[in-house]
Amino acid sequence: MFLLKKKKAVFVSPVSGVLVPIEECNDPVFSQKLMGEGVAIYPEANQIFSPCDGEVTLVSDTKHALGLKSKEGIEVLIHIGIDTVKRGGRGFETNVMKGQKVKKGDLLINFDKEGMKEEGVDLTTFLVYLNLQNNKIEHIQTSGRVLGGKDDVTVLNMD
């Protein structure tokens, strides 16, 4: 009898900071998981890193959001801050473009954390899984400090 070992997909935090339960965030689209399950981080740094190996599928015109497709086929959205779309790109600098291949831990975006904080912007950053389909979350981290591009925040069992 052979036991097939299930494949796992591991995602790291896109930013260094403090994890908070996504349900407790100030944006109903994310807190009610209307876009999907995910992780919320209050950033303590100004750099966004790739949470997985994959390909950039979206760089928003306003540079506050970025989409990736992991090598396992999981689509993720990284969204920096709440209502940051209203900034029109001010304070964000992207280091990647649509179609670019990335590795876990690659630098994707720099943002003016201090300037936005002084303006009262809620900088809660989200990593949302858009197409889990039959894949199951084995573990999702919801508290503690994490290092961007290094510390695991989600483990998926791939179907």
Draw up the topology in text.
Layout: E1 8-12, E2 17-20, H1 28-31, E3 38-43, E4 47-49, E5 54-59, E6 65-70, E7 75-80, E8 92-94, E9 101-102, E10 107-111, H2 113-118, E11 125-129, E12 136-140, E13 144-146, E14 152-157
Keywords:
single chain, eight-stranded antiparallel β-sheet, 159 residues, three-stranded antiparallel β-sheet, mainly beta
Written overview of the protein:
The protein has 159 residues and is mainly beta. The chain is 6% helix and 41% strand. It has two helices and 14 strands. It has helices at residues 28-31, 113-118; strands spanning 8-12, 17-20, 38-43, 47-49, 54-59, 65-70, 75-80, 92-94, 101-102, 107-111, 125-129, 136-140, 144-146, 152-157. The strands form three sheets. The chain has an eight-stranded antiparallel β-sheet, with no helix packed on it. The radius of gyration is 15 Å and the shape is globular. The two termini are 20 Å apart. The relative contact order is 0.30.
Low-confidence stretches: none
What is the end-to-end distance? 20 Å
Overall mean pLDDT stands at: 94
Order of helices and strands: EEHEEEEEEEEHEEEE
- Biggest beta sheet summary: 8 strands, antiparallel
DSSP, total strands: 14
| Molecular shape | globular
Placed side by side, the strands forming the largest sheet appear as 9-5-6-7-11-3-2-13
Radius of gyration: 15 Å
How helical, in percent, are the residues? Answer: under 10%
Q: How much of the polypeptide forms β-strand, as a percent range?
A: 35-45%
Total number of helices:
2
Structural class: mainly beta
